[in-house]
Write a structure and sequence with these properties.
A two-stranded antiparallel ribbon has the order 1-2. The two termini are 27 Å apart. 64% of the residues lie in helices and 9% in strands. A hairpin with a 2-residue loop joins strand 1 and strand 2. The chain is built from 5 helices and 2 strands, in the order E-E-H-H-H-H-H.
């Protein structure tokens, strides 16, 4: 069963975050590209440790700016990209240990649902293309 909401603990406070909707997924990816001057893929393929750290920052910032705004507000962070890296360490840890595994699992579950749904439609002889 898909877990659409997830509980995370940041510092001493617990928050409920929601799985991103379609628009937020697109915004997350766009934000990652904007933060890296459209070099996210190059950075990921670089094999350079400092690039991987930068991508951890990018992933963390993008997620909290798009899907965790209430968390940033609570910690009085208006723009996560403008704070010093040491102030984001707690957020990086929360993202990598609590958020990313949940997102990865949920995305995997969603991808597994789609082919089964299409397979069920084709085996039943029904198609949504003709309005049935």
């Amino acid at each position: 069963m898909i877990e659409r909401e997830h509980k995370i603990t940041v510092g001493e406070r617990t928050f409920i975050i929601s799985f991103p909707n379609v628009g937020q997924i697109i915004t997350l990816e766009s934000t990652k590209q904007a933060l890296t001057d459209n070099r996210y893929g190059q950075m990921a393929a670089s094999g350079v440790a400092s690039m991987y750290y930068a991508l951890d920052l990018v992933d963390t910032i993008a997620f909290f700016q798009v899907c965790g705004t209430e968390v940033l507000k609570y910690f009085n962070i208006k723009n996560a990209a403008s704070v010093s890296p040491d102030k984001l360490e707690m957020f990086i840890k929360v993202y990598s240990e609590q958020v990313k595994p949940w997102l990865d699992k949920t995305f995997a579950e969603l991808r597994n649902i789609s082919p089964k749904s299409e397979e069920n439609e084709s085996t039943s002889g029904k198609s949504n293309d003709d309005g049935e």
